[in-house]
Amino acid sequence: MMAVIVKSAVKDCCKGFNVSADFYGALDSSVQNVIKAASKRASANGRKTVQARDL
Hints:
The protein is mostly helical. The chain has one domain (7-54). The protein contains 2 helices and no strands. The protein is elongated, with a radius of gyration of 14 Å.
């Protein structure tokens, strides 16, 4: 699966901190898991649109 996060955006959110190389992969994996779970919830509710309430 392709990367979901944008490294430059993560760096912008972490102003004043260094970001280790392995952080990006771990964050991307977490975000993908959240998206998959939200998609499953939307499907379980008979929708094809993932909404904020699915988070």
